[in-house]
Amino acid sequence: MLRLFFLLLTVVILSSSDVLADDPGLTPVAVLVKKAKRAIAQNDLGRSGQLINEIYEMTTGLDAGEEISIKDRATLDYHKKLCPYRKAMASLLTKQDLEHLHHQMRIPAFVLVEENDFPPYVRGIINCVQDNGEPVPEAKALRDGLSWAKKLHAATVEEIRVMGREYETLLERHPDNVNYDILNSFINSKIKEIHWEKEHQEWKKRYPEGLGFQTNLVNKAHKGDLAAQLKLARRLEIGHNFRQSNAMAYFWYKRALQNGGGDVAQTGTDRLFPHLSVADFLNIEIWTEGNFRPY
């Protein structure tokens, strides 16, 4: 009876150990993957981590304990070495892992599309496929992420707001999720960028010669540049890229006349004189005495 007990105990131990994973029909990598699956199922984090490191070293030829620099990570060669590892690890990823990867890969995808820069290493990730031609999870997630980012960058504000509801909802459920927070900030920054660009275009229409053009022209006129004085006076008179003001235009025509502006300056003062009020003349006197530069 005691002998039978030990025999049964031996069977149980063997059935729950990694020995059964050593199937002669499996490659060494497949054996490690099978062992890792069992360790993960048993929630043995130490053992599963060790096995994953072994898979990494066996498939890439790299040392799992060696830290890879950011510069080296951003190379095509590094990601080519990672491809066999990604293929081996694909079956270990849970549904939750895949969901995490789906959102995580949108972050670099957004930056790549934003900068319109696709370094060679990106191709190294995207082109990693299984033996059946299916992309590994990282490749699929990055491909999907790039499609999402391109759609976002081409969208209107309203379309972006619709896309943004995904992360508003996810953040309500998971307020501490860093990926969701980053992606939500990307979406908000894109909306602000579109608003800024719209305002910038409106400013360009209003001030096609540049916002600094007004100040530069006034400064030249104030220093005695006759051409600048006449140009400024005329623009103030008709309201061309300046707020229309008869009083200010008259002030500069008068300055130009005193500076040798001749018939053009004289005609300008004569044209505006009938349209000036007592308050206008009072302002012109104040500007003159105070050596102001009104515009």
Structure description:
- This protein folds into two domains: 15-196, no CATH class; 212-289, no CATH class.
- It is built from 16 helices and no strands.
- The protein has helices spanning 2-16, 28-41, 45-60, 70-73, 76-89, 95-104, 106-115, 120-126, 137-154, 157-173, 178-206, 212-222, 226-238, 246-258, 262-272, 278-289.
- The longest helix is centred in the middle third of the chain and has 29 residues, at 178-206.
- The chain is rod-shaped and about 105 Å long.
- The termini are far apart.
Spell out the key features of this protein.
single chain; 295 residues; mainly alpha; 2 domains; 16 helices; disordered N terminus
Topology, please?
Layout: H1 2-16, H2 28-41, H3 45-60, H4 70-73, H5 76-89, H6 95-104, H7 106-115, H8 120-126, H9 137-154, H10 157-173, H11 178-206, H12 212-222, H13 226-238, H14 246-258, H15 262-272, H16 278-289
